[in-house]
Amino acid sequence: MGTGATARLSKKSNSAPNRVAFPVAVFTVAKRLSRGAYPMSAPFWNTISFNGLFELGRSSGPITVTRAVANILVVEDHFDSARPIIVALEKAGHHVTHADGGDAALADLRHDQRDLVVLDLLMPQTDGFDVLKVMRSYLRWHNVPVIVVSAAADSDIQRAEQLGAQQVFRKGSFGLRDLVASVNQILDDGATEQAN
């Protein structure tokens, strides 16, 4: 900061006894960085990857990094199957919304930006394949990661992967910890890619 900025901070600090002038470092995880939102000049704005942030912590002393809350959509027509997934993701600190079918999922995506979708394939009317096709055909949703959780046959799983599913879990043969770890890894990888 220049001298003028320091003087202004000091004046405000003197006029309000509960305020103190000190430098602030802000670390955030963002998909799109908008410098217009923060009145900072270029020398004070820098993008850093998670690995770079950890290296910064090692070299300059202790630093605590918490994962940003992700907005996750769980698409499952049987709420009894969705409930444990929702609870596990919420316990991991994420905001989770449930859609009870493909039509509800697409309606949700039209109104809200989601960071990741957990998707069942076998649903009545608009199934998971239809949701994947629509998501991959629109630029707005094209890069939203999708994790499939389904009891579908091997050929259906391969089809989902061809349509762009990042990860597939078979119902009844996966642990919720594995699912949460996969969600967090995909989100962390995406945040690192955005930062680089």
Strand content: 5-15%
Low-confidence stretches: 1-24, 31-44
Order of helices and strands: HHEHEHEHHEHEH
Superfamily at the CATH H level of the largest domain?
Response regulator
Describe this structure in words.
The structure is a single chain. The protein is of the alpha/beta class and 196 residues long. The chain folds into two domains: 58 residues, no CATH class; 125 residues, Response regulator (Rossmann fold, 3-Layer(aba) Sandwich). 46% of the residues lie in helices and 12% in strands. α7 links the parallel β4 and β5. The chain is globular.
Give the arrangement of secondary structure elements:
Layout: H1 3-15, H2 50-60, E1 71-75, H3 79-91, E2 95-99, H4 102-111, E3 116-119, H5 128-137, H6 139-142, E4 146-150, H7 154-162, E5 167-170, H8 176-195
Parallel strand pairs: 1-2, 1-3, 3-4, 4-5
What characteristics describe this protein?
Rossmann fold, 2 domains, 196 residues, globular, disordered N terminus, alpha/beta
Short summary of the structure?
With 196 residues, the protein is of the alpha/beta class.
